Amino acid sequence: MIQTIGGKGANMIMQLVLTYLLDPAEWGVVALAWSFAVFIGIIQSSGMNDVLVHRQSDLVRLANPGFWLSMTLGLVAAGLLAGLVPFASGIFGEPRLPGLLLVIASSYPLHALSVVPKAQLRSALRFRFIATTEIVFASLQAVLSVVFALLDFGAYSFVLPVPIIALVRGIFLWAATRPPIRWNPQFGLWRLLWADGMLVLIAAFAHAAASKGDQFVLGLFHDDRTLIGLYFWGFSLSLQTMQLLGQNLTNVLFPALARLQDDPPRQVAAFLRAARAMGVVGVPVCLLQAALADPVIHIVFPAKWYPAIPIVQILSIGMALRLVATPAESMLKAGGRWIANLAFAIAYAVVFVLMTGAAAASGGIVLVAAAVTLCYAIMWPIAIRVAIARGGGRWRDVLRIYVPLVPIALLAVGPITLVAHRLPEMPGRAWVQVALVLVVGAAAYLPLAMRYCRQETSELASLFIAVFRGRFRRAAPMPEVDPRSR
C-alpha cells in the first residue's frame, strides 16, 4: 500500500502541475502514442516476471535464461516499434508521433533490466523494499516530467523520463539483488519460459487492446486532439483509486496465491476474502470519486479541463465495478491457468473494442466513457467466475462480492450527491459540496458496512490497528483459510 500511495501521490502532483503547463491537445498526442506503443511494449514485458514468480521454486535456475530472453524481446520490441513509426503516423495523421514513439522504443531494452530482480523480490515477498524503491522512482519520474514541461518540451515531457528512469531502476535493482546472470544465454531453457510466456504474451496483447483500445479508436474516428486529450486526462484521473488499491493488492496477492496453487479451494477462499475486503474500501471511494469530480475539478484544475468532468464521473462508476475483480487475473496466473487467462482476455478485448468502437463512431467522448463502464459491468464479474472455477467457486460467490456492497455504497453516496448538486449558487459552493458529500456519505456508509459486511470490516479494522501500532512490519504469506467460509 505504501508503494502505491507514494507512487500515486507523486503521479497526482505531476498530473496537477502538467494540467497547468500543457494543453489538452498535447495530452491527446501522448494518448495516441501510448495507445499504439502499448501493443509493441507487450513483447518486451511478455509476462516474464509473472512466469518467473509462478515458477519461484525454480527461480535460481531460470533467472539467467529469463534475463536473456527478456533482453532479446526488449530489443525486438524496440526495433519493431521504430520500424512501425511511419505506419502509426499515417493512420493517425499526426506528425508529432514519430519522435514520441522513438523515445518510448528506447525504453524497452532498459525495462528488461528489471525483470529478474523484480521477480526475485516478489518471490521473496520483500514488499517493503519494493515499496520504498517504487516511491523514489515514481517521484523522480514525476519531477523529471515537470522539469521537461517547464523547459517547454511539450508532449515529450511525458515520455522522456521513461527511458531515464528505466535505466536507473535497472542499475539499482541489480546492485540490490545481484541476480545470477551469466554470459551464457542458456537457449535450451528458453522453452521452459516461452511455453507459459507465449500464452501470457497473447493474453497481454488482448488486455492491451482493452486498456488502450478506447483511446485508439477515438484517434481513428476523431481528428480533434483536444477531445482525445480531455478523454485521456479524465480516464487517468478516474483510474487513481483503482490503481491505488487494485495494483497494490495484485502485487501482494499474486506471489501469495502462487504458494497456494496446489490447494485450489484454499486459494479461492483467500481470493474471495481479499476481493470482498478490497471492495469494502474501494467501491465507496470510487463512488465518492464520481460524486466529487465536479466540485474538486472546479476547485483544483483550470477551466480548460471542465469538459472532462462527465468522463471522470462515468468512468469512476465503472472503476467501482472493475476494482473488486482486479485480482482475478492474478488468480489465474497464480494457478498457472494460462489458457483460461488467454480465453478471457481475448473475449474481453473483443467486447471492449466493439463497444468502444461503436461509441466512438457514433458519438463523442462521453458515449465512449459510457461504453467502457458498461463493458466493465458485463465482463469483470465473468472474470471472477472464470478465476474461481477450478477451486469450486460458483456464481453465488461472485454475487456475494457485489451484493450487498454495491447497493449500500450507492445508498450512502447517491442521495447526498443529488442534494449537493442541487445547492444554489453561492460563494464557496464547490467547497460546501465536497464537505457535504464526504461527511454525510462517510457517516451513512460506515454503519451500513459494519452491519452488512461485518466480517470484512472487522478484518480491515484489525489490519489498520496493527498498521497504526507498527506491528505490520512486513508482508506475510496468506493466512490459513477455511474454504467453507465462502
Commentary on this structure:
The chain folds into two domains: 1-185, no CATH class; 210-486, no CATH class. The chain is an all-alpha fold and 486 residues long. It is built from 22 helices and no strands. Helices cover 80% and strands 0% of the residues. It is globular and about 70 Å long. The longest helix is centred in the middle third of the chain and has 37 residues, at 264-300. Helix 6 runs parallel beside helix 10 (161-177) and helix 16 runs parallel beside helix 18 (365-388).
Rg of Cα set:
22 Å
Overall morphology? globular
Which percent range describes the beta-strand content? under 5%
State the helix count: 22
Structural class: mainly alpha
Major beta-sheet overview:
none
Instruction: Count up the domains.
Output: 2
Distance between the termini: 25 Å
Low-pLDDT segments, ≥5 res: 471-486
Percent of residues in helical segments?
over 70%
In short:
By secondary structure, the protein is an all-alpha fold.
